[in-house]
Amino acid sequence: MSTSDAKRFDRLTSILIQLQSKRVVKAADIAERFQVSLRTVYRDIKALEQAGIPIYGEASKGYSIMEGYRLPPVMFSEEEAFSLLTAEKMMDRFADASSAKQFKAAMYKIRAVLRYKEKDRLEAVENSIKVLPNDYIPKTKDDLYIQRLLKTIADKQVIKIGYTKADAETYTNRTLEPIGIYYHGNYWYLVAFCRLRNDYRTFRTDRISYLNVTDEVFHASHPTLDSFINKLKKEKELEKVVIEVDTSILKYLGDQKYYLGFLNQEINGDITRMTYLTSSLENFARYFMMIGEFATIVEPQSLKDILVRNLKNIEKRLQCS
């Protein structure tokens, strides 16, 4: 078999797996995944049909495989197996206990279809991958309700939660129509339509004290999670901040700079210029006070004004103590 024939065979196998992953798969999605033309996709689909695969549908609408048709156990490549092992390690750090447990169960099934050679290789590197916790970031809560939320989203079930806001003082009971969840800045968030506020709201899942799933199914048509997140990005006002720091302290800044909107840095000898896009100058000012001994503000002036105000308040408190 020539190299081109082998490449096409691999693509045909992958397309067959992709067709089994969804009810309908568009030709454009296949073309984008494999970086081929639509004409090539049409030829590949025809080749699968000629091989006896029960595919039906139209190029303009999408393709489906007859329900009940299944491939024999899938053989994973070594690279795919390593990627899944890496994901398993990350699940322990970035998801809750329930999600990590379910992923481990899935991994047992995946390992079961690997050839002996791949099983041995996977076992050999398993202890060579670690995801260490950051001591400066709070430990993930054992139950973030991720699995239950995903089920209610799929079933369109109304839920009731107890929620504590960021000030740790305001507690409310909410009735929600869940839309989606996303991970950002070390936290999982739920996007839902809140019947108490009669509007869309975002809830940090680690602040949910209880979650009850009701028997009520909602039929309202809500925006997609992607459209909601894109809207948040557009509405969020970001301000550019440029500071210069002693190059010697870069190694101490760690990951915190990314939570503040870090964009890039230019090292020029002993001085490094760092650029941020921040959503809160107040928060950035507090951060800057920790490194202010080794840094200067280039812009904006409003950040300098906030720092001057904060330092005056500190001075007053020191004089009173």
Automatic annotation (TrEMBL):
Pfam families: HTH_11, WYL
InterPro entries the record matches: CBASS_pafABC_assoc_protein, DeoR_HTH, HTH_11, PafC-like, WH-like_DNA-bd_sf, WH_DNA-bd_sf, WYL_dom
Keyword Transport among record annotations: no
Keyword line: Transcription, Transcription regulation
Domain (HTH deoR-type) ranges: 8-61
Domain of life according to the entry: Bacteria
Name used for this protein in its record: Protein PafB
Source organism of the structure: Mycovorax composti
Lineage start: Bacteria, Pseudomonadati, Bacteroidota, Chitinophagia, Chitinophagales
